[in-house]
Amino acid sequence: MKRLFIFVLILTFGISCWAQPPKREMRGTWIATVANIDWPSKAGEDAQRQQQELIAILDHVVKNNMNCVAFQIRPTADAFYRSSYEPWSHWLTGKQGRAPEYDPLALAIEECDKRGIAVHVWINPYRVWLDDANLPAELKSTLYGKYSGWLAQYDKTHYFNPADDRSREHIVRVVAEIVEKYDIDAIHMDDYFYPYRVAGKEFPDQEYFRRDPRGFSDKEDWRRDNVDRVIQAISQTIKSRKPWVEFGISPFGVWRNASRDPRGSVTRAGQTNYDDLYADILHWEQQGWIDYVSPQLYWEIGHPLADYQVLVKWWNDNANNTLSYIGHALYLINPRSSKPAWRTPMEIIRQIRMNRGYPHIQGSFLYSAKFLADENLQRALLEQVYQHRSLWPINPRVKAIEPCDPGAPFLYAMGDHLYLNWQPENNNRRYVVYRFPAGTENPDFDHPENILCVTGKSSLMLSMARPEEFREYRYYVSALSLTHHESQPVAFSSTWMQSL
């Protein structure tokens, strides 16, 4: 009986923990632009229609109480931003190099700022063109004309050759320009380093290895060093320009199988980061070159070859003081799935709850944005795990910037609207507005249910059901710095309350 009581107590505590979402948690989504997966819905679509579609995606992000987008701005050595080095993307305008009527990255930053959403810009380091049969003439005369000696074809896809120093130098220039020109929160890369192996085909870098092995006798170690060099260079480039901009990697979900390395996970993945993509994530963590990882754990709990539960624990245990935001597969949810686990959104809910039991797992990225419009998924997220807004985790790898308190907050009512205003002060990047019932003596700023909104603006307009409604609540505002550190909340002065 005593054991049963203890079990029930533990179970009740666990459920209670699950029911209380944390105040700080990464809740991101990938916005994939390659092949128009998420946005825009059609290459060459009218600019106004494209902008409306992007804003609709961001509205769904906020509606689901999420706080970050990984916006793919360089899918195939092309640009969804104003680049000095690479052409405008054909996924955007319908023709490689054709300029749009607006800057998509600038628009995304502006609209995310209004909604309190962080912007991680997602770039693919090496991929140049996906389909050799449709390599356009304009690409041959631009990228290929300038960089033909650096490029390699593997199967049907063209890549910057990781073995060529000029490839690394070009990628670093691209990153430097983005960081310098745009007010972003992070540079984000996915799992495509050396390409996934194709049976019977070898990546064409043998001549590079023959000419300059750099002391390596094993070509696979040499390949890993090629990738190490670009990761280290990108990290140094980011931090030398804006130390608060994070560098995140979203690797394939298995670093290495334990059958090949006792440090690996108890999995049986057909390909792995270390052995096939030549991406030694643990080394990058240990060297301090990256600020977070978002491993793509696109398997269900109990999967026979790659069990989600095994992998999330492995990434937590091998964090090396690096925050992990787990990547989840929304695209697998299908009521007609052959796997019962994926017939409802509850597999994702179980995974997010599981994440919260590990100290180095500080949130999630959901793949991908278009699925956030699904009402069943929305209901599950908002009722089960994302009941309230959350702030971003504080990254221990990024030197802290402390914000000053926002200045002179005041509010007034006019008709059926309430207007809140404050003054930006030093190191203020975003703001958190809290609301409590009038008369609350000890407001709890640690509980996310009291967060009314997060915004990058210094004002807020709220609709009221009744003109006197504003007197029923007490409002506070705090500032967040570039590193997500929070100031003390400041009350809106009651002396400024007036009904006009």
Summarize the structure in words:
The protein is of the alpha/beta class and 500 residues long. 30% of the residues lie in helices and 19% in strands. It has 14 helices and 18 strands. It has helices at 2-19, 47-63, 90-93, 104-115, 137-141, 143-147, 165-181, 206-211, 219-241, 273-277, 281-287, 308-317, 346-355, 375-385; strands at 26-31, 68-74, 118-123, 127-129, 151-154, 157-160, 186-189, 246-249, 292-293, 323-329, 361-367, 407-414, 417-423, 430-437, 451-455, 459-463, 473-480, 490-491. The strands form 4 sheets. The chain has an 8-stranded parallel β-barrel, surrounded by 4 helices. Strands 15-14-17-18 form a 4-stranded antiparallel sheet. A hairpin with a 2-residue loop joins strand 5 and strand 6 (157-160). Helix 7 (165-181) packs parallel to helix 9 and helix 13 (346-355) packs parallel to helix 14 (375-385). The longest helix has 23 residues, at 219-241. The termini are far apart. Mean pLDDT is 93; it is low at 1-18 and 495-500.
Pick out its properties.
alpha/beta; 500 residues; 18 strands; 8-stranded parallel β-barrel; 19% strand
Secondary-structure map with pairings?
Blueprint: H1 2-19, E1 26-31, H2 47-63, E2 68-74, H3 90-93, H4 104-115, E3 118-123, E4 127-129, H5 137-141, H6 143-147, E5 151-154, E6 157-160, H7 165-181, E7 186-189, H8 206-211, H9 219-241, E8 246-249, H10 273-277, H11 281-287, E9 292-293, H12 308-317, E10 323-329, H13 346-355, E11 361-367, H14 375-385, E12 407-414, E13 417-423, E14 430-437, E15 451-455, E16 459-463, E17 473-480, E18 490-491
Parallel strand pairs: 1-2, 1-11, 2-3, 3-7, 7-8, 8-9, 9-10, 10-11
Antiparallel strand pairs: 4-6, 5-6, 12-13, 13-16, 14-15, 14-17, 17-18
